[in-house]
TrEMBL record, chains A, B:
Stretches assigned to the Fumarylacetoacetase-like C-terminal domain: 56-257
Family named by the database record: Belongs to the FAH family.
Alphabetized UniProt keyword annotations: Metal-binding
Residues making up the signal peptide according to the UniProt record: none
A Pfam family recorded for this sequence: Rv2993c-like_N
Domain Rv2993c-like N-terminal: from-to ranges: 1-49
Descriptive protein name: 2-keto-4-pentenoate hydratase/2-oxohepta-3-ene-1,7-dioic acid hydratase (Catechol pathway)
Gene3D superfamilies: FAH, Fumarylacetoacetase-like, C-terminal domain
Domain of life where this protein originates: Bacteria
Molecular-function annotations in GO: catalytic activity; metal ion binding
SUPFAM superfamilies in the record: FAH (SSF56529)
Keyword Metal-binding assigned: yes
Length: 261, 261
């Protein structure tokens, strides 16, 4: 089942996607819903960010090649994480499928994409074993962890480098039946595949992260966990279109524009 | 005016505090409210966390003595921030005035308090000058940025060291008329003042933070900015009671208990 949040006829609502039609619901997938008789064409609605997370978790470094290539680019020794220490991103930066990533006028040239699989939490969870960890996941979506590498390197935190407004595209929908093991993440720049990796080949699995995290913290319905990326991005320029496709799940498309151009 | 969130007679609501009485409202201070005829004794209600932030910002290092003494304790050279780079904390960790901070059984001995003034954002804001920055602040509350220093030092992120469940007491209420310049932050351990500093003597003022932040990000109603602490904390033990008083604003009291004792 695919959950989509959308605006149509001046109203923002959740719906269930059936092919290219949306069955609008009253309520939401977290607190409960009822189906309505309203139907919409997917092509005719404005797709919204699928949810505003309660807490926005992000694994950061969770695929080997990304760690090695990133370190090489910075002239550093790769520091492959030995523990599943989760990080954070900020809600202000979220935008929907189809919206523009706006690069501030004073940003550097190293603007990079990071295509990521995102776990959406549906149930309150604490102290889950790795075997039962995925029981709190209600579905999966796609994220693009856009980064300005100069700020990321030189600021004391990731506040601008990772969390500038519009730097966190997420969507287009939440899929409750996604099969991670069969999936490939393909990132296209202006239509051409530039990064491709097996979505499930992580350093630490989603189940491992959830099990470790819930020893110390409670996961809540509406939390999201972005699970990291592999490979490296070219420097993105004004007008570039980036598609993050995860096979069997969907495609998240955003255009990058530079402020003031 | 003081806004308080509370539970009484099985209902959680916002109210306006008048002396030791609460005038219950329908709605909230962010989206709008109407006063009701219901009144409660402050002493008879359960005080709740004053709000669940949309984004939970934290200045981290923002008072000179805290930076210097912290570095000394770790045997490092003090690294006083030269820029107002904001950080983040996590919503899962919030607890209310009067609730227990629960130290995990496997935590180390270096459990520390950090008494902080907290700005509560009431209006959407982008690109505010320093002169107009405080116009988006609807009020002020108190936070205790509880920290486990061994995890804080050794983990790749602050996920356990700062954001373990219960590590972020906030409250007891939001004061819309607070005068920062006249205020002192007093932190008491079991009734005795152990840390005391001028609340407003920050490295970077609230207005400066907001002005810098809103060059890159949008502040939203319900965001909070924790503004850092001064001084150092003794190691806290099972049964310790910590009061963070900010004069003219209120007192945030929490008891520390160690899991499994």
């Amino acid at each position: 089942m695919r959950w989509i949040k959308f605006t149509a006829e001046g109203r923002t609502a959740y719906g269930i996607l059936e092919g290219d039609r949306i069955a609008e619901v009253a309520g939401d997938p977290f607190a409960g819903y009822e189906t309505t008789s309203r139907r919409h064409d997917l092509a005719a609605v404005k797709i919204e960010v699928p949810l505003i997370p309660r807490t926005f978790y992000a694994a950061g470094l969770n695929y080997v090649e990304h760690v090695i290539e990133g370190a090489k680019k910075r002239g550093e020794t790769p520091n492959i994480p030995t523990k599943a220490d989760i990080g954070y991103r900020a809600v202000n930066a979220l935008i929907a499928h189809g919206e523009n990533v706006v690069i501030p006028a004073d940003a550097g040239e190293k603007i990079h994409y990071e295509g990521e699989i995102v776990a959406v939490i549906g149930k309150k969870a604490k102290n889950l074993s790795e075997a039962e960890a995925l029981s709190c996941v209600m579905g999966w979506t796609i994220g693009n962890d856009v980064s300005e590498r100069t700020w990321q390197k030189n600021d004391r935190t990731f506040w601008r480098g990772k969390n500038t407004d519009t730097f966190k595209p997420m969507g287009p929908w939440i899929d409750t039946d996604f099969d991670m093991e069969a999936a490939t993440t393909n990132v296209r720049l202006n239509g051409e595949i530039r990064t491709s990796f097996a979505t499930g080949h992580m350093l630490f699995s989603t189940a491992h992260f959830i099990s470790v995290m819930t020893r110390y913290l409670t996961l809540w319905p509406g939390d999201v966990i972005w699970l990291g990326t592999d490979g490296v991005s070219p420097d993105l320029k004004h007008g570039d279109v980036v598609d993050v496709e995860i096979t069997g799940l969907g495609n998240l498309r955003n255009t990058f524009v530079r402020e003031g151009l």
